[in-house]
Amino acid sequence: MNDKKVRVIHTVCGCVISAALAVAAICLIFSALAIYKSGESPYTPESIGAEYAKIAVPLWIAIGAVLAGIILNIALPMPKSKAKALKDPFIRLRIMQKKLPADCNHTGIKRQRELRKVYRVACAVLCAIAFMPAVVVLCNYELFTVENLTPALLRTVFALVIGAVISGVLIFLLSVIENKSAEREIEWTKVALSEASKSDEKPVKNNKNTAKIARFVLLGVACVLIVIGMTQDGFYDVLQKAIRICTECIGLG
Q1: Which residue in 213, 211, 207, 178 sits closest to 103, CA to CA?
Q2: Using one digit for the tens of pLDDT, what is the confidence trace for 53-74?
Q3: Directed axis angle between helix 107-130 and helix 132-139, to 10°?
Q4: How far apart are CA 123 and CA 176, in angstroms?
Q5: Residue 44: what are its φ and ψ, rounded to 5°?
Q6: Predicted pLDDT of residue 191
Q7: Taking the complete model, does pTM exceed 0.70, yes or no?
Q8: CB of 172 within 8 A of CB of 95?
Q9: What's the mean pLDDT in 196-206?
Q10: Distance between CA atoms of 27 and 49, rounded to whole angstroms?
Q11: 43 or 20, which is more confident?
Q12: Torsion of CA 67, 68, 70, 72, to 10 degrees
């Protein structure tokens, strides 16, 4: 079986598992709501079991779908795609950035990185605004009464779904914009690498020559100072002070 068919099978299996889990979750929510509205206090295991028995089929289907997905991943693992990784602009950008000098501060590269930060902050703010209606509904406690519980839950779910859809669209647009920005940064990185390769040899030679000259100058200055100290009998003063410390302060001898 070729890789394309394997990916199609995994995609179909993932969609089936997601749908089964979503149906099971909705059934559980409505069963819990029915148990709550029954008015029993405390709730008996028999009443809870009778209510959950009504949704046994979707629950078993969801469990079977998850187990089938696990078995599929073990028996028919998803093939790895190197080409897809190389198509990702951020992976190519990381590979190219390792070749850049540490002190590279190219204007085009810096601008693209700053723009991506602005895009992410703007997307986060817009996603937060998209979920504000759901937050407003949840904070209005007067809506969540026993008589008005079902409409309030439906409003909350509707607001959450709208916020999730808007956030998904925003995140998709953000990924598209960031990929384009990464492609532009790749172009600027190529320019920076070409500039660095042209000006790489001369500075290295100059730095090596400067380091050698500095070492010889320091060595010469040290030798001159040693000779001056010896001619002025400076070491006798040091010796006398050492003798006094040993004999007077410490008490040796």
Answers
A1: 207
A2: 888 888 899 999 999 989 988 8
A3: 30
A4: 12
A5: -95, 150
A6: 81
A7: no
A8: no
A9: 57
A10: 14
A11: 20
A12: 170
